[in-house]
Specification:
The protein has 215 residues and is α/β, with parallel strands linked by helices. It has two domains: 144 residues, HAD superfamily/HAD-like (Rossmann fold, 3-Layer(aba) Sandwich), CATH 3.40.50.1000; 55 residues, no CATH class. The protein contains seven helices and eight strands, in the order βαββααβαβαβαββα.
Amino acid sequence: MSVQAANRPLIITDCDEVLLHMVAPFRDWLLEAHGIRFDMGGGDFGRALTYLDTGVKVEQPEIWRLLNLFFDDQMHRQFPISGAAEAIGEIGRHADIVVLTNLLDFRQEARTQQLAGHGIDLRVFTNQGPKGPALQAILEEYKPSRAVFIDDLAQHHGSVAETAPHVMRLHLCGEPLIAPHITCAHQAGHAHARIDTWDDALPWLLEKLHQTEPA
């Protein structure tokens, strides 16, 4: 996981719903441990949790508490998005790859070990809030010849588009529970493509990594 030679292409990828499923194991744990139903049918994560016994929506502060509990004790439930480990292995032959994940900094080591346990041995950067500034710091360290950003959330593509517009941006959400319900960064004009499977994303990424002219 050491820094490679400068000027090699660089992939900067999110983890949850890009490399590993999070919502599906979070949903299962909520039901088993807390009697809470998760349903993204309304398209709003903040309104997706409901107490089964009362039908009352779980309020935002409690959602954040539950998310933190999940990342404290339940990360072992997460499993790879189909094709992610294989695609990362192939991309690693052509480019450096790092993970930029929105977790609290003290979880950096746990995330690194979690990914390694699934055969995805990558350097992990933690972040809170918009990802553009954190991505810019990574670019300044690696100085890649070209870079591609992968994330499942449109707001992070918007942040990167504003901070580092030259970086290619792929909106990828490998979790079918939420993929149809989230804002599409490509449609919003903040991502260069929207591809939700690694089988289809891999050739797109390899083309961009070897591209000699601006898109």
